[in-house]
Amino acid sequence: MTNTKRLAEDTCPLVYQCRLPLSTRTVNHLAELLRRHLKAIRSRWRILPPGKIAVIVLAVLRHDQRLADMAGGNDVSESTVRRWRDELIGLLAAQAPRLDRALKKIAKQGGEVVLIDGTLIRTQRRTGRADRRNYSGKHRSHGLHFLALTDENGCLIWISAARPRRTHDNTAARHDHILAHLRAAGLGALADLGFRGLDNDILDPVIVTGYTASRTHKLTPGQKEANRVLAVGRAPVEHGFAHLKNWRILTKLRTDPARATRLLRALLVLTNLEVNR
User: Fold this and answer.
1) I need a surface site. Which of 66, 99, 112, 168 has the fewest CB within 10 A?
2) How far apart are CA 57 and CA 85, in angstroms?
3) Residue 244: how many CB atoms within 10 A of its CB?
4) N-to-C CA span, the chain
């Protein structure tokens, strides 16, 4: 018998405890969502109760725990944990608000403006034609791009579909008809210079961006002050992104990019449960 085989026989699986920094409200919401789903599909039995399944899925999303590790610690198969994860992500994503409804809700609450910005999430390198579309020369990495809207306090209200990383902010905004939805809701939006040219209405602009300098035109003191005020007003949108990226599964996605949209919208629901508790 070789030393490798002897060590393999002497080794026993070890399980350790890890703190999950989430509220009981989030766990209960996910467990109740699963209970209603099981009742709707008339599923009589699962190997673990809904509350335990909710904790396992939240650990995968929050700490980016490997599926095999969570499976071994709970005496289930890796495919079972994957199925639970995908099932609950789908149920949560279905609760994410649509763009028109999210904007109408802000308008009914007396809001006047929303904050819009785009961000990137890293993914594993892909093979084939998809590799080039998801590669960003600016950031020198592969990833996906998505837009997000927040209210004036930085609370996330909507997330767009995930697109290839080389997608420009304006291109994504035009694809989602954000300008038309803002006009329909009677709201304005504060954005960075990446959205310049999206709203060409000079008399009644909906999307407000800052001023940019050129070689032949320097910014006046008034324009610099306007940029400073806009930057202060836009700061909460970064807080919204920070809350979303606390879910470490977004550190570097190892899932299929085609499923990234559902994942992002599921995390939007979970983030609002945590932030608005």
Assistant:
1) 112
2) 5
3) 23
4) 58
State how far the Cα of 134 lies from the Cα of 166, in Å rounded to an integer. Answer: 6
Could you give the angle at which helices 78-93 and 260-275 cross, rounded to 10 degrees? Answer: 70
Give the other-Cβ count within 10 Å of 260's Cβ. 20
Maximum separation of any 2 CA atoms in the chain, in Å? 84
List phi, psi (to 5°) of 98. Answer: -75, 160
257, amino acid identity: P
Express each pLDDT in 98-146 by its tens digit.
999 999 999 999 889 999 999 988 887 766 665 666 666 666 677 888 9
Instruction: Specify whether the backbone of 158 is left (phi greater than 0), alpha (psi in -120 to 50) or beta.
Output: beta
Q: Which residue has the tokens 């836009």?
A: 234
In the chain, at which residue ranges do the beta strands (DSSP E only) sit?
Answer: 113-122, 135-136, 141-150, 156-159, 163-164, 188-190, 207-208
Average of per-residue pLDDT across 235-260: 88
Residue 264 neighbours by CB under 8 Å, 6+ apart: 146, 159, 162, 244
| pLDDT of 7 strictly over 50 | no
The residue behind tokens 């291109």 is 171
Nearest Cα to 86, choosing from 148, 147, 125, 34? 34
**CA dist 175 → 114, 128, 148 (Å):** 19, 25, 14
Is the predicted pLDDT of residue 10 greater than 70, yes or no? no
176-188 tens-digit pLDDT? 999 999 999 999 9
pLDDT of residue 252: 85
